[in-house]
Each structure stands twice: as structure tokens, then as C-alpha cells.
Amino acid sequence: MSKIGYARVSSIEQQEDRGALRKQVERLRNAGCDRCYWDIQSRTTEVREGLQQLVNDLKLAPKGTVSELVVVRIDRIGSSSKLFYSLLEVLRSQNIKLTALDQAIDTESLGGELTIDILLAAAKFEVKMLSSRVSAERKHRMTQRKSHRFAPLGWVVENDKYIKDERWCVSLLESKRSFRVWELAEYVFQVFYESGSVRKTCNNLNRIFATPHKVGNKQRKESKSHQISIEDLNEINLSPQSKKTYKRYPWGSLQWSPAGLKDFLVNPVHAGGTPFNTTQKQGGKRKHFDQWEINWDTHEGIITREKHEQIKKVIRSNANNRWSGVEGSYTNPFANLLKCACCGGALTRQAAYKSKDGTPNHWYQCTYYSLGRCKTKQMLSSHSLDKQVAELLINEAQKLADLVDLSHEPLEEPASVKSLRESLSSLEKLPPIPAIEKAKDDIREEIARVISSGNTVVKHNVILREEIIQMFSDRIFWDTRTQLDKKRILSRLIRRVVVDGTSVVRVDLL
Questions:
Q1: Number of structural domains, the chain?
Q2: Is 268 found in the same domain as 397?
Q3: For 272, which DSSP code?
Q4: Does pLDDT of 440 surpass 60?
């Protein structure tokens, strides 16, 4: 029968002493363990890869193959009584003894269980006291308007104040431009203003600084084993974290990730503010940047506060637009108009590719299908959708116009109205610039005023009819419109477009 060991250190311990985990493993080796499981995580974290791997291996191991589990101290397993006793049940089911090198405890006796409860309670109390001290220190620093101990890219902390990092960082050979660290941070914001989205900015930065767009895919797919053999101890690289963090902030390189870049852009330190209470009390998850508490004007920023708010506004708007970071961003003329005939849910773009002529083609599907609340699996291409909607509106243009209540409209149109119609027809053939659009609206208003003779309801109906007849009287007009112009037209005239699978069922007007 063999002995196995379990070693755990916190990330802070491992950062302060790179040999902390190795020292534990060596002690377990001297105690007779032939293999060891390990974690570099806090004792408050119950879900750990090494501990889970240990439990799974013990459950699968035949009885009698493992005689003893050795740890340095009980708190190496954790501070949770539930976690400890669940592991103890697994050990008892396999007739495995638990031994702590620094604590003489008999886990099978009542006195031993009492001692364990006291030790776990003491460990939990220590964790809470440490958390209380950290919270008090954070509140003190917030009240005194002091900086955090760590600074984002572009900054250093001196005398509890953020100051610009003046160290030279990188040079671009093509443009013959060199950056200090704070200038590099400022340049990142400049690229974001030009790109318009976090993902596109990330791609542009990686292209500018010649860093790969996709790095370490193989490393991310490979699972890191948390079991080591004692003989292989010197060959194992015990890193403090199992996941690569090179793309969170480019401290070690200039490789960016969308998540890390977003955290960098919304950090108020760049605008002269210091954030506090950025994580939730339970779970330690990061709050949304709108929920942060910020002390403003604690130092001089590299961007203004107005630009900081503008950046957050762009990121908020892009959060609901998965296509905002796509190269050559495509305007969706049917945004918020498509409804599923089966369940009434909205249709959204799920995929995209470029046709042979270089034009983008998107595929729409009911959003409820992926949630299992709709049975419509078919997707509808944007080319087919545009064609069907145009054909439907063109064929029904006169019919739709007749539906408008024009009971008060005179049978014979004055000559001035005919002249205005000719002017409007000429303007429709010109590119849709703001000045021309305003002129067309003024002409429609004038036509409606002459026809309606002051009747507000009739005037509105006349304007609606004029737009329908003018825009959908022929196919050439619709095909020559830009995507942005189509979106403007559809949003003014149409309430919804009902789609059943790959067919447009009907179009409801406003």
C-alpha cells in the first residue's frame, strides 16, 4: 500500500516565496509519500483542481491500494467544515487514514473530531479577521483619497499617488516612433477612438505591434495535471496560476485580449479618478464598471473625464451589438423589426460571410430557438430577406396607399402639388445627405399642407402615403439605397416584419 500527499499554498504565499509549495511537497516526500496533489489557491476556495483530482482518483482506486493521506496541517485542506468532512467520508469509505505532520490528531476519536472543529473554526475566524482588516484598510485609503498599491499600465504609485510612468517601453520601426509607458497607454485610447469597439481595437493593436492575434490555443486546451510524482519534483514548474494571464494587461508583452483591454479602457485612473469597491462581497466577482465607487480628481489623468464617459457609453452600446467589432461594420436595416411567426420572438444575426462580389451576407434566426422555446430552426439570409421585403412592398405599394384614410382629400390635385411632386422625384435620385433629406421632408410637408388644408390627421396620412408611393413605386429606387438609408426608411414606415422560417409572411406598417 502507498501513501499520497496533498499540498496547498495561497497565491500570496507563492508570490512571496517561490519555493513555498516545493517545501511542502519535499516534506511530504520525506514522510514517505510517492505522489502528491497540489493547489495554489486560497483556503476559502472550495472548488480546486488538485483537490478534486485527488477525490476522483481515490474514488476510482481499488480498496487497499492507498493506506494514508498526508498533509502538513489540517488548514491546508481548507477552512470549510463541509469540505473537510466530505473528504473525510471518502477517506473512510476507502479505509484511508488522514495524517497531519504538524498536528497529532486522531480523526477517528471524538476528541480528534472536536480538535478538528476547533482548528477549522480558528481558521475561518482568521480568514474573516484578515478580510475585515483589508476592508478597513480599503475604506481608510478611500477616505484619505489615496491610490491603490498597484497601478494599471501607464502609471506607477509614489507616495500613495498615481504618477505617469516615464520609462521607455517600445519602438515602432515602421513609423520610427518610440513610446514611454504612459504614452503607450495614451496611444491605446487613440486606437480605440479610431476603431470604435474593444475587439477591433484589440486586433488593431496586435497588428500594429506585430503580436499574434491568436496565441496559446494549444496551451489553453491542454489541462494541467495537479498530480506530481516525487521523482519528477525537480522537473515540474510550479507556477502560481494555472491559466495564462499574458493578455489581461500587456506587462510582459504587447498581446491584448478583449477582456483585458476593456478593463484597461474603463479604468478611471486614466481620467484622474481612483476606483473602490469594484468586486462583490460574495464570490469576489468583478462588478460592472457603472457600479464602481470613484474618487475623482485624485491625480492628473491622460484623458479627460468627458472622454472617459464617452468610452463607457460606446462600450455599453456595443455590449448589445455582437457585430460592432466586425471589420467593415455592416448596418442592419432590419434591426428590431424582425419577428418570428411561430413564437413571436425576435430574429437576430447568427452568422455572416462575404459573397463572391464582396458584399456581406448575414443569416437571421429566432433567438428563442437556441433556448429551446421555438421550433423554427431555419435561417434566413439577408439577401433573401431584403429581396422579399422589397418585392412585397413594391407589389403592395398602391394597395397600402389606398388603406390610408384620405376621405377629405380633393379628387383633383392643384398644379402646385404636381410641381412639388416633380421636385421630390428629382431629389430622390440624389445621394441621401442630411441637406437633401431635410429638403425632401419639407416638400412632403408642403404637399400635405396643401392637400389637407389644415386637417392634422389627413396631413399625417398624406405624408405617409407620399413616402410609400415614392419609395416603393419601382425596384430601382430601393436597390440603389444604402444600408443606412434603408434602415432609416424602414424604421419610419414599418412596425414589424413577420418571418416564418425562410419566408416573409407580412409587413405591418406604423
A1: 3
A2: no
A3: T
A4: yes
